[in-house]
């Protein structure tokens, strides 16, 4: 595991989960990933920073009372100018729901949605750069946007963040595999030639009760055992463990329904 440094604009730098029950959620993820917790910036309301060996890996906050919104993991994309990014989102057809606002002396944030409705954050770092551990069990290692089809939404993210889209299945730095005719609708987003996230068009398989949304992948040593443990802790398995181009992975949901992926990257 290595310490994270400042990220290039557009690179995912933090993931945050918004839930209704903070204490129960902390217990679930603490048991599943071995996380410990510390208080977050008071400006953000009830908020817990998840730690591994004393280093930040993720955050958990509380949804407004009566919001009726489902729990969901949200990636934050690095920026040098949160104000300018908010304006760029609006001009490209997205919406700004929160901010730009200061989170104490840690940085400046914006909560946005792309034209398909998928929510993401923008983070302009000051005293806090974001996730401090890159790789290893219990850490976020990938973010993927699930949407109806990739073309329109990729255009939005390319316009706002300057991503280089690649029509390959490049994940975790492995060599790209050319897409065959009739292959899945998946695009990798690159920053300075490096894969940082992906967009997958799933058509009618997109959940009607959730719509387009980002998902976070967390590394684990054993996806099969981790999926079983998630069930024991009150979660559920959405997609059973299976092998793929990225490694072995399973998709699960926590007790409040927030969906995420457990993955053992290929070669680890």
Automatic annotation (TrEMBL):
Tree of life domain: Bacteria
Protein species of origin: Streptomyces thermolilacinus SPC6
Protein name in UniProt: Bleomycin resistance protein
PANTHER family: CONSERVED PROTEIN, GLYOXALASE-RELATED
CDD domains on file: SgaA_N_like
PROSITE patterns attached to this UniProt entry: VOC (PS51819)
All copies of domain VOC, residue ranges: 11-125, 139-265
Residue ranges crossing the lipid bilayer per the database entry: none
Pfam families given in the database record: Glyoxalase_6 (PF18029)
């Amino acid at each position: 595991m290595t310490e994270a440094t400042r990220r290039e604009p557009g690179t995912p730098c933090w993931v945050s989960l918004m839930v209704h029950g903070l204490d129960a959620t902390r217990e679930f993820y603490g048991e599943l990933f071995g996380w410990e917790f510390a208080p977050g910036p008071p400006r953000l309301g009830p908020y817990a920073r998840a730690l591994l060996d004393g280093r930040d890996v993720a955050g958990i906050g509380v949804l407004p009372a009566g919001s009726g919104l489902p729990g969901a993991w949200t990636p934050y994309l690095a920026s040098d100018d949160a104000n300018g990014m908010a304006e760029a989102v609006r001009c490209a057809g997205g919406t700004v729901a929160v901010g730009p606002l200061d989170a104490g002396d840690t940085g400046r944030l914006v909560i946005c949605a792309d034209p398909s409705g998928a929510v993401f954050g923008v983070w302009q770092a000051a005293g806090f750069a974001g996730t401090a551990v890159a790789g290893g069990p219990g850490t976020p290692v990938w973010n993927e946007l699930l949407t109806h089809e990739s073309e329109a939404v990729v255009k939005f993210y390319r316009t706002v963040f300057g991503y280089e889209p690649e029509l390959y299945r490049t994940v975790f730095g492995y060599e790209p595999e050319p897409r065959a005719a009739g292959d899945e609708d998946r695009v990798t987003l690159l920053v300075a030639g490096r894969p940082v996230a992906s967009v997958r068009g799933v058509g009618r398989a997109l959940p009607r009760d959730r719509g387009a949304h980002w998902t976070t992948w967390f590394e684990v040593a054993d996806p099969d055992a981790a999926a079983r443990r998630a069930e024991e802790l009150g979660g559920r398995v959405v997609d059973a463990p299976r092998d793929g181009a990225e490694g072995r992975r399973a998709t699960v949901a926590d007790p409040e329904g927030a969906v995420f992926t457990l993955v053992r990257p290929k070669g680890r």
